Amino acid sequence: MKLPRCLHALPFLALAALALAGLSPPAAAEGLDKVTVGGWSQPISEITNLLAEPDHGLFKARGIALDYVPGNGGGSAIQAVLAGQADIAFTDPASFYLALDKGADLVAVYDIYPQNVFNVVSPKSRGIRTIADLKGKRVGVYSLASGTRQHLLLLLATAGLKETDVTVEVTGLLNFAPLIQGQVDATAATDTGLLVGRAKGLGEVDVIEVRDHLNLPSDIFVVTRKDYEARKPLLKRFLAAYRDSAAWMIARPDEAARLAVTRAINGRDEAINREVIRLRNLSSVSPTTEREGLGHFDLPVLQQGADTFRRLGLVARALDMGQVVKTDLIPVRESAASPAKEGTP
Question: How many whole angstroms separate alpha carbon 195 and alpha carbon 202?
């Protein structure tokens, strides 16, 4: 399926937006260490805590010049790191498992969103109430390298189905138009995608939540093992700054929603920004983060995910999360430099 013409322009719009935002000042001139995040997405409102760096300066406060490379799915974020185009991947566990299965030497260092936010959405008229009902249907995904596709495969496998049992259509990031127009029967998306879709006229829908089958974290930070070993002090500062920015967005959602109007490419509506940010703040916390602080992993859940992917045939190798999940760089909960008290959004 061809993407609408407007979507082809998104990468260029994103780069222009980032240039205006001034995310990456001349690092050497200011005595800062540049860290480039390989994103899974364009600069959208749910990552306002990153995009608002020119406003809150939390990365600069820790000696970091933040840069962001837009992506087209969690797999593309990992590829950016492996290709040397980014220092750290903003990716999903499914893409992490698949990369490890192919032999990539990677480690996960921070749990960005411990709650799973992926889903499959379909108009009630399609009668898709269960995963089995997807057989023979046309299903949209953000991209073939996206977490939406990987989690669709996970859902299909739990019902004994394969990707060939459905017709996968690439519809683009947060794009519910093909679903609304009947070009696909269902779309693999996220909670924020569904929110945007409803705001654009999506009617009554049935939603199959991935978390009801496996509450795998939605996104994690991943680096090469080589960088993990060689750049620990810098990565530790970056993760502390990211934690600070996540705590800022939890504590100040209204401010974040206002800043997203100019910082995010999809942020024109402040009210929608506020709801997107509310959802993303909710996904940033869990019982584990309540005990240990933002960014901490629930290792048994990640291991369960890896074991499930192998059992369902989505990966071929046994993956030991104890060997590829590193927690020593995650900032401690009681940080004097934190700009806002960590709490419940």
Answer: 9
Kindly tell me the burial class for residue 193, based on how many C-beta atoms sit within 10 Å of its own C-beta (0-12, 13-18, 19 or more): buried
Q: Which of 68, 31, 35, 32 is nearest to 49 (CA)?
A: 68
Model pLDDT, residue 329: 98
Domain span holding position 318: 5-115+217-324
Domains identified in the chain, total number = 2
With respect to residue 224, please indicate whether it lies within any of the assigned structural domains. Answer: yes
Residue 54 lies in a domain: yes
Same domain, 79 and 93: yes
Q: Are residues 231 and 278 in the same domain?
A: yes
Same domain, 221 and 281: yes
- pTM for the full predicted model: 0.88
Q: What is the pLDDT of residues 198-218, one digit of tens each?
A: 988 999 999 999 999 999 999
Considering the domain architecture, whether residues 138 and 276 belong to the same structural domain is answered as no
Strand partners, 156: none
User: 238 and 190, same structural domain?
Assistant: no
Whether 99 and 235 map to the same domain: the answer is yes
Give the 3-state secondary structure of the chain: CCCCHHHHCHHHHHHHHHHHHCCCCCHHHHCCEEEEEECCCCCCHHHHHHHCHHHHCCCHHHCEEEEEECCCCHHHHHHHHHCCCCCEEEECHHHHHHHHHCCCCEEEEEEEECCCCEEEEEEHHHCCCCHHHHCCCEEEECCCCCHHHHHHHHHHHHCCCCHHHCEEEECCCCCCHHHHCCCCCEEEEEHHHHHHHHHCCCCCEEEEEHHHCCCCCCEEEEEEHHHHHHCHHHHHHHHHHHHHHHHHHHHCHHHHHHHHHHHCCCCCCHHHHHHHHHHHHHHCCCHHHHHHCCECCCHHHHHHHHHHHHHCCCCCCCCCHHHHECCCCCCCCCCCCCCCCCCCC
User: In terms of domains, do 164 and 310 share one?
Assistant: no
Give the mean model confidence (pLDDT) for residues 244-269. 97
CATH number at residue 178: 3.40.190.10
User: Are the C-beta atoms of residues 59 and 53 closer than 8 Å to each other?
Assistant: yes
